[in-house]
Specification:
single chain, mainly alpha, three-stranded mixed β-sheet
Length: 521
């Protein structure tokens, strides 16, 4: 027990001694650290002072270099500015020198102009002086001539002009007479040559249309179905198409009669569809006729387009193209109107080429000359004038419009295309086989026209021309005055209108003239 206490006490004493020793060591170490720190701090301060001095020197050197650099740049700018100023001063001096030279030249030129003007004034004064002398001498000569000839200057001038005028008139009349005689000798021959060449170069076809169409049937049993109960089917067909259906004893055939070829074609196609389908009743008839009508209208437009393309005609109005297409279903004196118009267009093109005229306009006028024969509605206006109105309405040229309106002499011809269209129309209609006409009745109608004119007093001669479309009446000037000639024309036209039957119109022209004939021997 005592040993343990002793050990503990010894241990405590050892701890206390150790602690005291440690404290003493710490104090010695701290004093050494402080000394070393002070020494190090003085070293750092010295190093920092050295570094600061070095940095200061570097900054001063950099500032000096920057200053030198800026100074050099400034000097360069000043040098450039001085150079520009010197260049500007040099240019200014050059311009001043140039201006002074120009002023010197201008002054010299003005001096020359003044000199020339002065010279011109002197010459003008001299010329005026000479002109006065010449005028004075001319007056003296005129006075002397007046004394010698016993005529004044005006009278002499008048006589001289009259003599020159008479001589010129005589020469002109002789020249005109010779030219007219030469033209008469050659014009008819040249005209025949052109017409014959034109006819020879055109290939034509014979095309005869009738006013009736025959619809063939497989058997007569179909006729009853077409007629229908109490005739309702045939009445529905006639009402829808405007065509007269004739069902008679003709075996396996039905006749359709109508002056309008378009309606007749619609009726024929509609009847063909109805018979093929087998369903024939009023409602079905109306439906088929509407579809067929639309089909025919499309075919008309297609025919018109194909025709103008074949003839090389461009820019035609759609309404005029439609009118051209309708010509396919129209005939004139048995001649198909579209075929006739195509022939006239080709003839016009060839004849215009022979005469050196515009062939495209000639073809255009030839194709459109009879479009007035296919109106949408009935009209009393002659087909030539109606066609001219359509052409004007749809923007055709003046030459084409005049050619359409004048091809039957309803209006005056104003261009060379007009007689060409008239001649080609006559060529196409007059060729053999072109038109169906009973010769005896045709000649009799012309003779009756002339006989009507001879039934009036004062008529000496009467001629039916233009295929009976015009009657020209020659009267005696002693018996018929100008006022009576107008009354006579009206009376003859009224008598023809009331007593005769004829297609189209008849123009009555009364001609009254006085002739003075002398013979130089």
């Amino acid at each position: 027990m005592d040993n343990i206490v002793t050990i503990i006490i010894v241990g405590i004493i050892a701890l206390v001694v150790g602690f005291l020793i440690a404290k003493m060591l710490e104090r010695n170490n701290a004093s050494q650290l402080i000394k070393s720190a002070k020494k190090r701090a003085s070293t750092i301060a010295k190093d920092a002072a050295k570094d600061a001095e070095s940095i200061k020197k570097d900054k001063i050197l950099q500032a000096k270099e920057k200053f030198i650099e800026l100074k050099s740049e400034h000097e360069k700018v000043i040098l450039n500015r001085d150079k520009k100023i010197s260049d500007a001063e040099k240019r200014t001096r050059d311009k001043e020198s140039q201006v002074s030279n120009e002023l010197a030249k201008s002054k010299k030129l003005n001096d020359e102009v003044d000199k020339k003007r002065k010279d011109y004034d002197e010459r003008l004064t001299y010329v005026q002086k000479k002109q006065k002398e010449v005028d004075k001498m001319h007056r003296r000569q005129v006075e002397q001539l007046e004394v010698i000839s016993s005529l004044s200057a005006e009278d002499a001038k008048t006589q001289l002009l009259e003599s020159i005028k008479d001589e010129t008139k005589t020469n002109a009349m002789a020249f005109i007479q010779n030219t007219m005689e030469e033209a008469k000798l050659t014009a008819q021959q040249e005209a025949k040559k052109i017409v014959i060449n034109t006819i020879q170069r055109i290939g034509t076809e014979e095309a005869i249309d009738n006013c009736v169409s025959v619809f063939n049937l497989e058997s007569d049993d179909v006729k009853g179905r077409i007629i229908g109960r109490e005739g309702r089917n045939i009445r529905a067909i006639e009402a829808a198409t405007g065509v007269e259906i004739i069902v008679d004893d003709t075996p396996e055939a039905i006749i359709m009669s109508c002056f309008d070829s378009v309606r007749r074609e619609i009726a024929r196609l509609s009847l063909h569809k109805l018979v093929t389908d087998g369903r024939i009743h009023p409602a079905r008839i109306e439906e088929v006729v509407k579809k067929t009508t639309k089909q025919i209208e499309e075919e008309i437009i297609e025919v018109g387009k194909r025709t103008v393309i074949d003839l090389g005609i461009h820019g035609l109005h759609p309404e005029l193209i439609k009118a051209v297409g309708r010509m396919k279903f129209r005939s004139s004196y048995g001649q198909n109107l579209l075929q006739h118009s195509r022939e006239v267009a080709k003839l016009c093109g060839v004849m215009a080429a022979e005469l050196g005229l515009n062939t495209k306009l000639a073809k255009r006028a030839g194709l459109l000359h009879d479009i007035g024969k296919v109106p949408d509605t009935e009209t009393e206006l002659p087909h030539a004038l109606l066609g001219m109105q359509w052409a004007e309405k749809y923007g055709e040229k003046t030459e084409v419009c005049n050619a359409i309106g004048a091809h039957h002499d309803e209006i005056e011809m104003t261009s060379l295309l007009s007689p060409i269209v008239q001649v080609c129309d006559a060529i196409s209609g007059a060729r053999p086989g072109a038109r169906r006409q009973v010769l005896d009745s045709y000649i009799q109608r012309l003779k009756d026209l002339e006989d009507v004119a001879f039934g009036f007093t004062g008529v000496t001669k009467a001629y039916a021309i233009q295929a009976g479309r015009e009657l020209r009446v020659m009267v005696e000037s002693e018996k018929v005055s100008d006022e009576k000639a107008s009354e006579l024309s009206f009376s003859i036209s009224q008598k023809i209108q009331t007593e005769m039957t004829y297609p189209g119109q008849v123009k009555v022209t009364v001609i009254r003239e006085t002739r003075a004939v002398n013979i130089a021997k």
